[in-house]
Write a structure and sequence with these properties.
Helix content is about 35%, strand content about 20%. The protein contains 6 helices and 9 strands.
């Protein structure tokens, strides 16, 4: 199993980190695609360390970039199997980041875009101890039917999606919101009018609000 790594930022205030925010990129990108969110969020989270790991595999749908799993076949069962295969490597990375910082699991937050959103939700809901927050942008909830038996944590979840997204339709977030609410997971969904497959200023502001609230209510974070 290849060890994950990627670009890093912070803590802006210097000194040891008090929180760890892991940013998971989408298909065909890499960690550089999301690490630019860190300086924006670090203004209000000066003691957070941000890291955006590169996904483990080369993208099989383009000339460059990485993928958490193949999307050549988008049948739900196939995508679920891909996420399950990628999960151990991501979990090992999360545990190593917390251990290196000397922080408890409650000091962790996950944010993901598109396929990275799928992985953030898949991993975060199955951790033994709830992360401080889960942020999912322009993505989907894989294997919602498995939550009844596999849900181990109920962290606060923010879902943000563009109303005119033609890559991952906004109905994916509406379905995720319904499934999470039914499973007792605290969830907020923000649908952005006129936005395609992207993150806008309102989404960034909502994400910062979710992170600060999550860390403020997490013991030891």
């Amino acid at each position: 199993m290849a060890q994950l790594d990627g670009p890093r930022f912070g803590p802006r205030a210097g000194g040891p980190a008090r929180q760890v925010v892991v940013l998971l990129h989408g298909l065909g990108a890499d960690g550089r695609d999301l690490i630019d969110l860190a300086p924006v969020w670090a203004e209000a989270l000066p003691h957070a360390a941000f890291v955006a790991p590169d996904a483990p595999d080369a993208c099989d749908m383009g000339p460059c970039g990485r993928q958490w799993f193949s999307l050549q076949d988008r049948r739900p069962a196939v995508m679920e199997a891909g996420a399950r295969a990628a999960l151990p490597g991501l979990e090992a990375f999360l545990e190593a980041e917390l251990a290196q910082a000397g922080l408890p699991p409650s000091a962790l937050a996950l944010a993901g875009f598109s396929q990275g959103c799928m992985m953030a939700l898949f991993a975060g809901l199955r951790r033994a101890e709830a992360p401080a927050a889960l942020l999912g942008y322009s993505g989907a909830l894989l294997a919602p039917e498995s939550l009844a038996t596999e849900l181990r944590a109920r962290p606060p979840v923010l879902l943000v999606h563009g109303e005119v997204d033609d890559i991952v339709p906004v109905r994916a977030t509406r379905a995720a919101e319904s499934a999470l609410r039914a499973a007792g997971v605290p969830v907020r969904a923000l649908v952005r009018p006129g936005l395609a497959h992207a993150i806008d200023e309102a989404g960034l502001a909502a994400g910062l609000e979710a992170l600060t609230a999550g860390f403020a209510s997490s013991p030891g974070a």
